[in-house]
Amino acid sequence: MSPAVFSHGDLRLYLLSLLAEAPQHGYGIIQALTDRTGGTYTPSAGTIYPRLAKLEEEGLVTKTVDGRTTIYAITDAGRAELSAREGDLAGIEQGLADSVRLIANEVRQSVQDAMRSLRADLATAAHEEQRAAKSRPRFDGMSGERATSREHLQRADASINAFRAQLRTDLRTHVARGGSLPASVVTELEHAMDEAARAVTRALSALPTDKQ
């Protein structure tokens, strides 16, 4: 389970600090939080708007409606609380940096664990295939073994296409919902796919062929 980005009550103070920089609408606040955390934390509207409403009730924030957009701004009382809790805010920002670092490390570790598991599975499959191949007779022409290999190739193609489609859908859905896609995440994805491709190539090179 990933560590919480904000401890209890910290998000409230952090929202005041964001509004102290400039008035914002709700989506802008969500995007600012996503950017400040490198894309590791994207709060939902159900998380942000109730807190903004509470800050408004306490007189720390005001809102103005411009057409279909609601803009939130910090009040003098809000700035006074922010100033009085300057030390707390510094602690929140340090804790935020630590939490983001932990989350990024967890993501990186998950990718590495998945790749190790994939490489181990491929190595085991290659070893078992080598053992099975030694006990099978070789045939010339379009043998039953060749037909089976073609069926397996079709299954592999279908699996790759399904994986590609699912990944594209997940990425597009995330971005469409307002989530960010940091370069670090894309780099990790590229690295993981490159490692997977190399693992498959190594496994295939270990399998017997008709020319061996």
In words, what does this structure look like?
Pfam families: PadR (PF03551). InterPro entries: ArsR-like_HTH, Tscrpt_reg_PadR_N, WH-like_DNA-bd_sf, WH_DNA-bd_sf. This is Helix-turn-helix transcriptional regulator. Residues 125-145 are annotated as: Disordered. There is one protein chain. With 212 residues, the protein is mainly alpha-helical. It has 2 domains: 10-95, Winged helix-like DNA-binding domain superfamily/Winged helix DNA-binding domain (Arc Repressor Mutant, subunit A), CATH 1.10.10; 106-205, no CATH class. It has 7 helices and 3 strands; from the N terminus they run αβααββαααα. It has helices at residues 10-21, 26-36, 45-57, 76-84, 86-134, 144-176, 183-205, and strands at 24-25, 61-66, 69-74. Strands 1-3-2 form a 3-stranded antiparallel β-sheet. The longest helix has 49 residues, at 86-134. The two termini are 49 Å apart. The mean pLDDT is 76.
How is this fold's topology laid out?
Layout: H1 10-21, E1 24-25, H2 26-36, H3 45-57, E2 61-66, E3 69-74, H4 76-84, H5 86-134, H6 144-176, H7 183-205
Antiparallel strand pairs: 1-3, 2-3
Helix pairs in contact: 5-7
InterPro entries: ArsR-like_HTH, Tscrpt_reg_PadR_N, WH-like_DNA-bd_sf, WH_DNA-bd_sf
Organism: Microbacterium commune
Domain Transcription regulator PadR N-terminal: 15-83
